[in-house]
Fold this sequence. Notes:
By secondary structure, this protein is α/β, with parallel strands linked by helices. The protein has nine helices and ten strands. Helix content is 37%, strand content 27%. Strand 7 (155-159), helix 6 and strand 8 (186-191) form a beta-alpha-beta unit. The protein starts with a strand and ends with a helix. The mean pLDDT is 90. Residues 14, 16, 18, 20, 38, 40-46 line the site of adenosine-5'-triphosphate.
Amino acid sequence: MTSILHIEGLTKRYASGHEALSGVDLTIEEGEILALLGPNGAGKTTLISIICGLVMPTGGRVSVGGHDIARDYRKARGMIGLVPQEIALEPFETVWNVVRFSRGVFGKKRNDAHLEDVLRSLSLWEKRDAQIRELSGGMKRRVLIAKALSHEPRVLFLDEPTAGVDVELRRGMWEVVEGLRARGVTIILTTHYIEEAEEIADRVAVISKGQILLVEEKARLMARMGRKELRIELH
Ligand code: ATP
């Protein structure tokens, strides 16, 4: 297997003095789905934000597809698709404009066939001319994923894709992730839910107080520790 993302000794101390990450090491293989499981304040968003170049690390290294984010930011960032927690989309824009513009921002040549393919894979093609404000919450989340895939990234980050959504919407999101897996997209998703990690991940990394406590194949982890024990470990 080829690794797509390599994180070494990553630390983050915010200006407040709070150490959000303390020496995180993690390697992600191409094509896998990794669930980053951890309670509130564990450091999940900080980790993703550093990888995406939104937050500056205090120490350590991150490389994506062999490109160091500090030295070769444009190339590294171009390989990443980020689906943030909050739905921040322009209400009066159409779905098609959102994905087309997003691709342009990454300096990629126009490729309508790719955008059509992405929208079809997320059951959004019929909605391409709809304005964002006309869509349901679930559809808006799909638009965020389509936007993140518009520039053909090799790894996709989903930051708590099902936080605060109902069971039906959560199941719908799991199906979307399954579909992306079938297309060979490498996915890292953060979650509070053990059930979510159990349902869709190949490997699970448990993060708490800025440290990775364990990284293990999901099947092995679930066999070794029951859900109950994992729940206790997380709190
Ligand atoms: P959640 O599941 O609630 O989103 P998380 O695992 O994503 O949590 P982070 O948002 O990365 O955790 O936060 C990690 C720690 O760093 C928390 O204690 C948080 O309060 C702190 N933190 C986050 N951003 C900042 C900031 N800009 N300045 C100071 N402290 C921060």
